[in-house]
Amino acid sequence: MGSSLFVLAIFFLSCSLVSCITSTEFLYPNFTASNLQFVDNFGNFLISRNGTFKASLFNPNGQQTNFYLCVIHMASNAITWSANRNASISNSGKMSLTFNGISITDQDGAFKWSTPPLKASVSALQLTEMGNLVLLDQFNVTLWESFRYPTDTIVIGQNLPVGLLLSSAVSSGDLSTGNYRLAVSASDALLQWQNLTYWKLSMDAKAYTNSNYAVEYMAINQTGLYLFGHNGSVVVIQVNLSPSEFRIAKLDYSGQFNVFSGSSLSREFVGPDDKCQIPFICGRLGLCSDDAASNPTCSCPPNFHAISNSADCVPSDGSYSLSVSCSSTDNNSGSNASLVSYSRLGYGIDYFANDFTMPVKSGVNLSVCEDLCSGDCSCLGVFFENSSGLCFVLQNELGSVMSTTGRNADRLGFIKTLVGSSPTNGNNNFNGQALRFPIVGLVLLPFTGFFLLVALGFFWWRRSRISETEKVKLSYPTSPSSGDLDSFSIPGLPVRFDHSIDDDTSGGGYSSSSSGPPQLVYFPLFALEMHEQGKYLEVADLRLEGRVTSEEVEKLVRVALCCVHEEPALRPNMVSVVGMLECETPVGQPRLESLNFLRFYGRRFTEASTIEENDGQDDFMLYPRANASVSSKMSGSPTSFSYISSQQVSGPR
């Protein structure tokens, strides 16, 4: 015993003077090592019995700032495991093996990493021929092993059970945990970014599904990659590969999952093989285009441009900035309530997550989809399928977008932006004036449709008054009861529309001729009826004949009708209205079932006109007289004219 201690003392003394000698297979407590001590052996302090693997205090990619305790395949120099991946040390930082386990400290003694508390004292550290680093007790019972704590790689003989993950590194020289994950579920192996799936093993052309058993773990061996179930006796999914004695499966820092074999690390399998499917391949909102050689090209989509010294893309209009999710650590203001706009990505552009997530809504229009996003501070954009009304949302973080050809042709993306520029074009702090504007918009929104229609009619009428050559009088102030009807009003709605319909006019159009006394028209109902018949030019003033097209009038009518939907949630917001009028956003399709209330109100408006024409008396009222009998209130006389308030027409505020 005394002689053994003497030998150990001589060994440690010699290590302090010259480069230490690498041990084979086993090390024993009270051992320390640093890269500087083993610099002549490139930091290697332990090798497996046949020299297949080595344990080293290593600096990946040759950089001189980050050193890690690693297990490395000797022939290929591939790192298969690292201990302190999120707490690197300098070249003089130390790894210590004691009776309590392994610990790593930096040159100043600062703690960086250690094995968890163990059930017994450590007698030895072993590096096996499979690349497993194992702590043993005095009975050679395993107390801890690196195979149970995978990083980004598994090797032959190592299992990745359901519940454990492979996590990518940040780069080839920085082994810190990156943003990509490989998870094994009960039915598949999945690649994920920000908890969003972007690839499944079962979807690969080389993968075969053999059974419906629940998956228990993933493993590789000399013949391929497998998902096993039923205590390892059943293959659920398999990828057959050429026979090889050495094989690793690695989640690369780029986001691809690779299987390599041989000392030259020949790649046998990759997923996804389309690099544009990788979520952050071109940075935030970068547009990835994949050519025939599978070399992705990064650019920015329409309406966006690149930031200097960055792959990220931001709105080209400097008065807009990208929204920041309320769940993001970059969100300093904690508010996403500023005035929201949406920038269209254009056709032929899709997002990696759309094929792996369920839409939040179906059978809706774009306005509803955008409103859902505007009301969710974690939502950063939407994708909308016009044909199906499917609404997909982008949450928490924005990745890259990708070009598509022929697939999901009518799926359009819209990125939430905030009105107001900032130095970084990504901050959502605004002054008080900007924050107050949406309140005004919300108050005015229910009346937008009516105002558009009334303003349009007034504009045309005003132009006719100015013109010296065209003077057509649309109203008949000399009619017996025009003054009476002028005094009739319903709060929140126009008092009177001066358009008339000739008795001889066909097709429901209106005329300015004086062939007979006109019928007053409830203009929103008339616009709805012409929309249903597709006769949009009938809505335009006849004096504009030849100066407006049916398409121009159709756009105005459709926008206006969308703004008067009975359900507030179906109405577009102010920004969407402007976008539709300026052709930046597809024009919404009015929901007829939500516009039926116009028919009811239009008939009541016509009732008032009929009473005026026939009786010439002001014998109707909005409210029953105080002394009116119950029977008179219930009668069908004009005195029971229905009253609809602006609150009822426009919906809740």
Structure notes:
This protein has 653 residues and is of the alpha+beta class. The chain folds into four domains: 131 residues, Bulb-type lectin domain (Agglutinin, subunit A), CATH 2.90.10.10; 121 residues, Bulb-type lectin domain (Agglutinin, subunit A, Orthogonal Prism), CATH 2.90.10.10; 144 residues, no CATH class; 204 residues, no CATH class. 19% of the residues lie in helices and 27% in strands. It is built from eleven helices and 39 strands. The strands form ten sheets. Strands 1-4-5-6-7 form a five-stranded mixed β-sheet, with no helix packed on it. Strands 15-21-22-23-20 form a five-stranded antiparallel β-sheet, with no helix packed on it. Strands 31, 32, 34, 35 and 37 form a five-stranded antiparallel β-sheet that branches. Helix 6 packs across helix 9. The longest helix is centred in the last third of the chain and has 19 residues. The chain is elongated. The termini are far apart. The C terminus is likely disordered.
The total domain count is 4
Helix run count? 11
Oligomer class? single chain
Helix content: 10-25%
Mean pLDDT: 78
Overall outline: elongated
Q: How would you summarize the topology of this molecule?
A:
Blueprint: H1 2-17, E1 23-24, E2 26-27, E3 31-33, E4 44-47, E5 53-58, E6 68-73, E7 79-82, E8 94-98, E9 101-105, E10 111-114, E11 124-127, E12 133-136, E13 142-145, E14 153-155, E15 159-161, E16 165-169, E17 177-184, E18 189-193, E19 196-200, E20 207-209, E21 215-221, E22 224-229, E23 234-240, E24 247-251, E25 257-261, E26 266-271, E27 287-290, E28 296-299, E29 304-306, E30 313-315, E31 320-322, E32 340-344, E33 349-351, H2 366-374, E34 379-385, E35 390-395, E36 401-403, E37 411-419, H3 432-444, H4 448-466, H5 482-486, E38 500-501, E39 519-520, H6 523-533, H7 550-563, H8 574-581, H9 597-615, H10 630-634, H11 646-650
Parallel strand pairs: 1-4, 27-36
Antiparallel strand pairs: 2-11, 3-8, 4-5, 5-6, 6-7, 8-9, 9-10, 11-12, 12-13, 14-24, 15-21, 16-17, 17-18, 18-19, 20-23, 21-22, 22-23, 24-25, 25-26, 27-28, 29-30, 31-37, 32-37, 33-36, 34-35, 34-37, 38-39
